Every structure is written in C-alpha cells, then in structure tokens.
Amino acid sequence: MTEPIIEFKDFSFKYNSQAEPTLKKINLKINKGEKILLAGPSGSGKSTIGRCLNGLIPNIDQGNITGKCLVNGKDITKTSLFDFSFTTSTILQDADSQFIGLTVGEDIAFALENDCQPKAKMHHTVNQWAEELQIKELLKQSPQSLSGGQKQIVALAGVLVDESPILLFDEPLANLDPASGLKTMAIIDKIQKELNATVIIIEHRVEEVLSQPIDRIVLVNDGQIVADEPTNQLLHENSLEKIGVRQPLYLKAMTAAGINLSSIKKLDKIADLPTSDSISQELENWVDQVPVKESTATHQPLLKLDHVGHQYNKNQPYPLKDVSATINQGDFISIVGQNGAGKTTLCRIICGFISNEGKITLKDQDLANLSIKERAEKIGYVMQDPNQMISQKMIFDEIALGLRLRNVDEETIKQKVNQTLKICGLYPFRHWPISALSFGQKKRVTIASILVLEPEIIILDEPTAGQDWKTYTEIMGFLKHLNKLGKTIIIITHDMHLMLEYTTRSLAFTKGKLIADTSPIELLTNPKLIKEASLKRTSLFELAQHYDLPDPNKFVQAYINSEQKNWKDEDYE
Ligand SMILES: Nc1ncnc2c1ncn2[C@@H]1O[C@H](COP(=O)(O)OP(=O)(O)OP(=O)(O)O)[C@@H](O)[C@H]1O
Ligand SMILES: Nc1ncnc2c1ncn2[C@@H]1O[C@H](COP(=O)(O)OP(=O)(O)OP(=O)(O)O)[C@@H](O)[C@H]1O
C-alpha cells in the first residue's frame, strides 16, 4: 500500500495578524509519487497550504495551529527550515523573493551547494538544466534583470536540480508564454516520473496544467477543501466553475453549444472526446448564429512609435530594436510573444522609465519633452510585479495615493476609490493592510490604483496573471467598458483566449522585434507567426479541428460572441 507523504488531519491555521483562521479543519492525504493540482479562487488559502509543506509555516509565517500536518512523516511544528530543505523544493509565486545568487548560474547552483556537491558535478548539473530549459545565455545575467517569464524559468531550474522528494510549484505558469507553459508542464511530468517525486501544483491556468496527466484535483474554497477527486470526475461535476475557477474552454464551448457533457465518458483530453457526427452537427449548427463584432477604434492616431529601441547593456543583444507602429484612439491592443522578447521593455520606454533610441509622439506631442510624472497623467502603467508598485500600508491609501498627489478633495477620492474597489473585487478588504493580502489580491490593488486615475491610455503588464476566473472576468469586463468609452487599452498577455476575446489588434514580438501587427484571429491562424512568437492556439481551435468543423475560426468567434452576451455595461456605471 502507498504511504501518505503529506497528511493534514483536522488542520487549522490562523495567521497572527488575522482575526479568523485562513485554513479551517483541513483533511488531506497525498501519497508518495502523486501529482496533485490545488485550485481555487484567489485568497482561498492555496499558498497557505503550500507554506505548510515547505516549512514557511510555522517557521517564518507564524500563527495559531490546531490539528496536525505531517510532511514526510514529520510534524511541521517540530521541523526546522533546514530540515525542510531536504524534503521540499518550492517555486514561490513571487519568484523575485526567491533569488539568492548574484548570477542566474549561482542561483540555480544554490541548492546543490547546500547539499555540498563537488564543483564539477554542480557545473554539469546546472548546465544540463540550463540547456533543457533554454536559458544558457542567461547564466551570467543577474536574476533581478530578467524578464518576468525568464525569472519563472530560472526558479523552475532551481527546483528541478534539487531532486527533493516533494516538489511544490506555486503558480509556475503565471508569467510564461504559451509555448513555455506547455513545455514546463511536460518537464514537470518528466522529472516527476524520473524521481518518483510527489508534485503539488498550485495554478489558476487549469487547462494548461491538464495538458499532462494529473492524479487528483484538490479544490480549496474559503480555507476548506471542497473537492478532492480525479480530474475526469471533477470535470463531469463542473465543480471548478461552482467556485469561480475556469472550466477548460473546450468544455465551456461544448456546454454553450448545448452538448450534454454527462453523456461523455472522458472529458479531460480533447483527443479522447468521442468523434460523433451528431456532436459535430450540434457544434456546426450553433456556429451559424455568429453576429458581427463591433470595434470602438476610430483610426485616429494617438501614440506613434517611430524606430523605438533600447539597450540595457552593451554586452547584451538588443532587448528591443526598431519598433514602429501607430496606436489609435480607442484601440484595445494585446502585446504578445515569447518570454524575454522585449514587451515590458517597450512599455518602460513608453512610460519614460528607460531611454529611447527612437521617437514617440502622443497626439503629435513629443514624449521626450514630458517628465515621467507628466507622462503618467496621460499613460497609466500597471507593472507585472505588484510588489514593485506598492508604497502604502493600507489598501485604501494605496489606491487613493495618485488622487491625493493630484490634490483631489477627500469626498471625491472616497467615492472614486470605493467604486474602483468594488470593480476590482476588493471592497470587503478596504480597511486591510496590504501585507495581509494574497499575491493575486495585491495585483488587483495595483490595477485599481491606476484605474482610479482614468488615464487616456492604460498599459497593463499581464493584469490577469495569477488571477482567478471571477476576478479575471471582472477586470476584463471593466477594461472593455472603459474601452467602449473611448479609452485606449494596451495589455501584455500570454493568455491567447484573452487576446481573442477582448482585444481587437495584436502586436507580436520575438527577440526584440515586432514581427506582426494584425488582428488576433489572423495571428493565431498563421503557423509561422505562432511558432516564432511562442504562441499557441486555444483549445477552441483544437476542439473545432477534432470535430472537423469547416471553419475553426468561425467557431472560435461564435464562442467569443456567446461569452460577450454576458457583459452588462450598467454594472460599471
Ligand atoms: N502573510 C500573511 N499574513 C496574514 N494573512 C495572510 C498572509 N498571507 C495570506 N494571508 C491571508 O490568507 C488568505 C489566503 O491567502 P493565500 O495566499 O493562501 O491565498 P491563495 O489561494 O494562494 O490566493 P492567490 O490565488 O490570490 O494567490 C488571504 O486572503 C489573507 O487573508
Ligand atoms: N534591467 C535589465 N538589465 C539587463 N537586461 C534586462 C533588463 N531588463 C530586461 N532585460 C533583458 O531584456 C530582454 C527583454 O526583457 P523584457 O522584460 O522586455 O521581456 P518581456 O517580453 O516582457 O518578457 P516576459 O514575457 O518574460 O515578461 C530580456 O532578455 C531580459 O533579460
């Protein structure tokens, strides 16, 4: 019989700074060699469970524990962090806080140094993983200077070299481009099989996690385990949606088309869905009601980029070079492409944080003549990492800060901040300190702090990374509403469905170059561009192909239109 390597028995945990327990009477057994997905809405307690498995609770995050949690046979209340380092390797949600080395190479080697391995063996192991993860050219770079996705891959390498019996991944995919996301899941699968490791993955991107087999999905809601079942069973019961986690897109589309999922035996892989003529027919009939999509873009030029470029360091290849494009008033643009392609660099240039080799004009005004503060009045920028933006202690003050700096009266501030808090799902937390928020909640605070200023152009660097589905739809619905009012929105995203559903124009980047400026659907029908920019077709395309539908793009469009029916602009007025 297999032994549990992790066991929670009536386990509750209350952070010292909280009045109520975050985990409530949890019972969970995970056997050696199992691969588990922990899913649930933002703030439900997933990372808190993770922190019990790697010893951060109770060694760093202190609080009140009742019940028992045994990891590798040891009671977590009696195990030091040092001991945990031999049992559990973790990718933290916030990769930045995890780096120790001065260079990427040193950082990956850190776990091996801890294990006192000989130098030659260490070099070999680091190089081997760097090769596998295609980050060899980054080994001498400082971890802090990496792009968001590169950081994530380096953190992954640090976990993989360690070969611990428990591998814990807290949102390993959040900043990865679609191709790297799939590759990461395949690598995790491979290493798990090789080491017979126990793998726990915490992720909002459920569909990508399911690209490889998962033994069980454990659903967490409000600090409790509300389901613990094999993937197929859970998908049949539609348990994900019930707690606000996104069901895989192809299943949502089949449901929208009126197909009865309970009659289908295996739902967890498109390839295993029964190829029946009646399902094809049902899908095809449904597609025929596609209305035309409206666009609010005026084609009035707003922001002109002319040979934009920057070099951080003369010894590095150009992170961004020779980018020319015109953004129009009312555009809803997605910036997509490979990790490290220069997307964030472009936004930093537009905001004036770093120098520009070319020229940028906003309504014919040269941005070079404006200070960063003056630019910020016109162009709001929500950074990828919320910790780099937050300066206040309390949530309300953080969101009010920009208005206070602009001398807005307190009554208006209160009204605007409260409205934004509601839109971003943060109203119940308005009196909380930011330090008591989950990572996803912090990210929402930073989005709120920019939205409240209502700038002319809003640039958001992966606003939905690490967000649950409910928040994702609320944030995107709100941005769509702002766009309808004429605001220009630019989003950096790795979410291909977001790009298709919400944006009307895509700029695709690879290795510092703009390689396409086209409609999202055109982009995802071009195999060459998909490959070059490390993109991926969504599962809606795959479903349409599986059922031999004559026009897969039309099917994707039909689904998007069926989703859009659910938006109500009044919600935001
Ligand atoms: N360091 C902390 N101090 C006090 N309270 C905390 C701390 N970290 C988390 N919490 C509380 O625990 C709740 C759950 O946080 P946790 O990070 O476990 O959620 P999560 O499910 O991983 O969310 P997300 O998907 O947004 O990352 C938070 O809403 C917050 O109330
Ligand atoms: N401060 C810096 N110093 C040196 N190099 C940097 C710095 N910031 C970024 N880079 C490098 O510039 C390149 C482009 O980075 P950028 O953050 O613009 O990529 P990105 O397309 O936004 O990636 P991701 O999708 O992973 O967020 C990367 O190779 C990165 O390592």
UniProtKB/TrEMBL annotation:
InterPro entries: AAA+_ATPase (IPR003593), ABC_Co_transporter (IPR022216), ABC_transporter-like_ATP-bd (IPR003439), ABC_transporter-like_CS (IPR017871), ABC_transpr_CbiO/EcfA_su (IPR015856), ECF_ABC_transporter_ATP-bd (IPR050095), P-loop_NTPase (IPR027417). Its main location: membrane. Gene3D superfamilies: P-loop containing nucleotide triphosphate hydrolases (3.40.50.300). It comes from the Bacteria. Keywords: ATP-binding, Cell membrane, Membrane, Nucleotide-binding, Repeat, Translocase, Transport. GO terms for cellular component: ATP-binding cassette (ABC) transporter complex. Pfam families: ABC_tran, DUF3744. GO terms for molecular function: ATP binding; ATP hydrolysis activity; ATPase-coupled transmembrane transporter activity. It is found in: Cell membrane. It is a peripheral membrane protein. Residues 6-247, 303-536 form the ABC transporter domain. NCBIfam families: PRK13648.1. Belongs to the ABC transporter superfamily. Probably part of an ABC transporter complex. Responsible for energy coupling to the transport system. This is Heme ABC transporter ATP-binding protein.
